[in-house]
Recover the amino acids of this structure.
């Protein structure tokens, strides 16, 4: 019964959050903390921090963490299925039928207008997130170099993530060694 | 072979996808558009538009869509989505056990001090890579579409960034504008 409830809660979360990621956070909190009382809000914050420090999709990570907290591995799997299934079904239907519409003249006109808008919507969070990532004049070269490597030199973003992580780690080790001298 | 490549590509995206949806877009683009050419840049932009308008995380939406179009089968969608989620499962379950002990650990904090600014660069690159003639029209061959695209791009950027206008509304309006202009 708890599994059914768990699945249903996350299915709702997956169905009603458009835009993904951070848009899901308040809805998950409302459902799990306030309505169901499965976890308390301090625990929820911990789960959120945990989910943010792991790679992958934030909503999926939160589902795994809270599902695991509530009902172990089976709970984690149930919650993740609930989160993933609504978008899976919807997108699958679109993938099956969209190609037929793609060559339609009206659809093509509409998407000609939409494409530059989408690019703008991707560009906007660069500036929004810049603040929360604590970008300052000492580390602003990191995002600039990362973007240029990928854009102009076809560098794989995977390498950028690896190098940035290792670089941050080594710089921290170096800084503390200097401080000890 | 395509199945193995699909699994490997999305497993990598899941494993290295730090920084949420938009940062992950740049990884998906690298694997799916640049490396394997499963999608044209145009199709990729269309999927992002569809993802923005339908519920659920962009990562799941892209995996499901690309899995289907790359293999022509529902199982392609299942495989790609599973491959994307699997690293999260493994890492989250490990992290869960060690989290309380390590999340204030200096090495973890240092690593993230390097990762966070790079993720911003990743998002910027996703936007830069998509600013091409497929999405904006060519400035020489199709000046009208190019100018219209630039205007739409500027208007949406300002509306979303300064006035916090909802993304879905902006996509719908841009679609209406496209219908009227072309």
């Amino acid at each position: 019964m708890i599994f059914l409830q768990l699945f249903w809660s996350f299915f709702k979360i997956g169905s009603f959050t458009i835009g993904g990621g951070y848009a899901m956070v308040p809805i998950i909190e409302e459902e799990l903390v306030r309505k169901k009382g499965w976890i308390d809000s301090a625990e929820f914050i911990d789960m959120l921090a945990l989910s943010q420090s792991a790679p992958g999709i934030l909503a999926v990570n939160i589902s795994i963490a809270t599902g695991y907290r509530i009902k172990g591995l089976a709970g984690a799997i149930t919650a993740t299925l609930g989160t993933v299934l609504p978008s899976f079904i919807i997108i699958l239907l679109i993938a099956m039928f969209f190609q037929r519409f793609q060559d339609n003249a009206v659809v093509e006109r509409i998407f000609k207008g939409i494409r530059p808008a989408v690019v703008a919507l991707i560009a906007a969070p660069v500036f929004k997130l810049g603040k929360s990532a604590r970008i300052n004049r000492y580390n602003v070269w990191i995002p600039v170099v990362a973007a240029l490597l990928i854009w102009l030199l076809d560098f794989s973003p995977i390498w950028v993530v690896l190098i940035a992580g290792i670089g941050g780690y080594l710089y921290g080790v170096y800084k503390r060694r200097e401080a000890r001298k | 072979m395509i199945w193995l490549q699909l699994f490997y590509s999305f497993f990598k995206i899941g494993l290295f996808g730090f920084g949420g949806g938009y940062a992950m877009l740049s990884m998906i683009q690298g694997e799916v558009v640049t490396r394997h050419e499963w999608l044209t840049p145009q199709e990729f932009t269309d999927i992002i538009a569809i993802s923005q308008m339908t519920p659920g995380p962009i990562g799941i939406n892209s995996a499901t869509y690309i899995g289907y179009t790359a293999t022509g089968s529902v199982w392609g969608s299942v495989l790609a989505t599973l491959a994307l989620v699997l690293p999260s499962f493994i890492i989250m379950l490990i992290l869960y056990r060690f989290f309380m002990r390590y999340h204030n650990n200096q090495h973890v904090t240092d690593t993230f001090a390097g990762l966070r600014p790079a993720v911003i660069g990743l998002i910027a690159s996703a936007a830069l890579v998509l600013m091409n003639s497929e999405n904006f029209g060519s400035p020489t061959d199709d000046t009208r579409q190019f100018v219209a695209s630039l205007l739409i791009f500027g208007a949406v950027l300002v509306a979303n960034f300064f006035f916090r206008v909802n993304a879905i509304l902006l996509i719908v309006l841009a679609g209406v504008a496209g219908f009227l202009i072309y």
In short: Residues 2-102 of chain A form one domain. The radius of gyration of chain A is 21 Å. Chain A touches chain B through 101 residues (CB under 8 Å).
